[in-house]
Amino acid sequence: MNGDHLRWMNTDKTKPFLLRVRDALPELNPSEYKLGEFVLDFPGEMAGYTASEIAELANVSNATVSRFVRRIGYGSFDEARRAVRDEQRAGTALLRFSSETPASGGAVAAHFEASQQNMDLTYGALDDTVIDSLSEAMNAAPRVWFVGFRAGQSFAQYLGWQTSQVLSNVSVLPRAGETLAESLVSLSPQDIVVLIALRRNSKLAGAVAKAAAAAKAGLAVIEDRSSPETADARWRLSCVTSANGPLMNHVGAMAVCNLVAARTIAVSGAAGRSRMASIEDGHRRFDEL
């Protein structure tokens, strides 16, 4: 019995199609990974095309399509296609969008529907234990680093700003005019690195993960695509950013960041409350707000 078959036998048969694909990504070879990304970008394609047509659209071989569907727990492409069609009929919004089919009901309704589905899938994959473990570790760390590139930079800035209400030593990278090497040379084993790894991510994200591992710092990843480069992260928080247009839909990413910040403040205890009280005193002295 080969490895593909074993993986198929152990797959949770009740898991939705999109979650199967996302969970399988770190284990896929390059051609399968390419197909997985295509399917996640346009999941509705699976319902209306043959295996050969999907292979052509994703620019992979027919054999890759066959291996891929077994990897995510289906016995054949037809079985996977039936599962997608069943989920479409059950109302899974993202599976109704494809690269060629425009959404109906107007732009506002389509955007809301995609956002709502992203939120459902994002929250469905989160775990209280993981969130609180990360929040407690951040409160105990001498320094917390938030790192994000491209779209991830905004979320790193947001997390740095919000958690600095209770954390006294926060750094957001990359900093203007400074290389990563100049910043991360100060990384220590007790530090926590929170890496925001959203599509299309910079290649430097993998270098940050390696730097955290080399320094024996704790690594947390907030991601919308699992990657082998971050597979060893101590904390992994997934969000869904699928969209039916040219821009990724980041409502799920914002929800995860807000949850992490809120829990970090909530578990900070007396030390956190004392710091927040000092900040409020500063607001009054500076008359800033």
Task: Write up what this structure looks like.
The radius of gyration is 21 Å and the shape is elongated. By secondary structure, it is an alpha/beta fold. The chain has helices at 3-9, 17-24, 30-41, 45-48, 51-58, 62-71, 77-90, 107-124, 128-140, 151-163, 180-184, 204-215, 251-266, 269-286, and strands at residues 144-148, 170-173, 192-197, 218-223, 235-238. The model is unreliable at 1-10 (pLDDT under 50). The termini are far apart. Helix 5 packs across helix 6 (62-71) and helix 10 runs parallel beside helix 13 (251-266). It has 14 helices and five strands. The protein has two domains: 3-101, Arc Repressor Mutant, subunit A (Orthogonal Bundle); 128-286, Rossmann fold. Strands 2-1-3-4-5 form a five-stranded parallel sheet, sandwiched between helices.
